[in-house]
Structures are given as structure tokens and as C-alpha cells.
């Protein structure tokens, strides 16, 4: 079949009168579906079964959330994942403020990220200048000196508690070993009288 196509193509290009095809005809031949590798390509499917259609529809539905007005499921990059984890741990970050318990143990599939736009009335006292703004929540937390100091203090107290616990465990084990050795060396004898 490809030989016939090539012969037909050559006969069209090399006519007896030796006139060349117009540019539009040449472009049409270039964009022709039938090419040299036509026989190797698979035939497109004309009919799809119901099961295949349902699978495709299910995949499309899973990309948006119907109950929340088609809220999209964005791609979960590492940056977004870090931001969501920080939001999940917000009660640890700000212990003086009460936050409701998280509904999910895992990260949400459907979410949107927005940007807070300050009102012009808060220009002087409650806004963050552009130089101090960061792209992500994690970057903002790392840039905050007060937060860093708070984390350092918390880390020190945790390390001290662990050291104290490990010391208590070591002392307890030492006492147990001493008692075991004492019992081995001085076994309790029973004479039969109570």
C-alpha cells in the first residue's frame, strides 16, 4: 500500500507537462494522513464500551468536587504540601490561641490557595511591607525572629525532658541490675516453716 501511495505521489509531482504543484497542494500533501508509516500505526477506535466511558467519566469527576461547586484538585507540589502541613500544625505553632481539631488525618485532596489583600486603612499598623513578604508560609515562619526564639526555647525544654527521662531510666536499670546480682549471690532459702 505504501508503494502505491509513493507512486501516486511521485506521479502527481512529476507530470508529463512538468508543471509543479501549487504551494497549497504541496502543504496539503504534507499534512496528509496517509504517510510512509501508515501501516504501522494502530487503527483509532470508533466505539467505546460503557465500562470505558464510565471509567473516563469517573476520572474526570475525581478531578473536581461537585458538592463544593466544582472545587479543583490542584497538583500537590512539595511547596504546597509543606504549607498544608504547617496549617495542620498551627495549634502547636501558636499555643496561646485555640484552634479547632483537624478533621482529616491526611492532607486534603481539594483545596485552593488565596492571597490576602489588605485594606488601605491598615497601611501603617497591620500590614507587612513587600520586602518582608515571603512566597510560602514556611518561609514566613523561618524569617520570623520571634518564632525562631520560641522554637529554640521549646526545643531546649524538650531536650532537657528527654535527658531527665533517660537519666531516670538509666538509674532504674542500674537498680534492677544491682537487685538481680544481689538475689543471685544471696538466694532466699525456705525452711518449710511459716
TrEMBL record:
<keyword id="KW-0539">Nucleus</keyword>
<protein>
    <submittedName>
        <fullName>Deoxynucleotidyltransferase terminal-interacting protein 2</fullName>
    </submittedName>
</protein>
<dbReference type="Pfam" id="PF08698">
    <property type="entry name" value="Fcf2"/>
</dbReference>
<dbReference type="GO" id="GO:0005730">
    <property type="term" value="C:nucleolus"/>
</dbReference>
<dbReference type="GO" id="GO:0006396">
    <property type="term" value="P:RNA processing"/>
</dbReference>
<dbReference type="InterPro" id="IPR039883">
    <property type="entry name" value="Fcf2/DNTTIP2"/>
</dbReference>
<dbReference type="InterPro" id="IPR014810">
    <property type="entry name" value="Fcf2_C"/>
</dbReference>
<dbReference type="GO" id="GO:0016740">
    <property type="term" value="F:transferase activity"/>
</dbReference>
<dbReference type="GO" id="GO:0003723">
    <property type="term" value="F:RNA binding"/>
</dbReference>
<feature type="domain" description="Fcf2 pre-rRNA processing C-terminal">
    <location>
        <begin position="62"/>
        <end position="154"/>
    </location>
</feature>
<keyword id="KW-0808">Transferase</keyword>
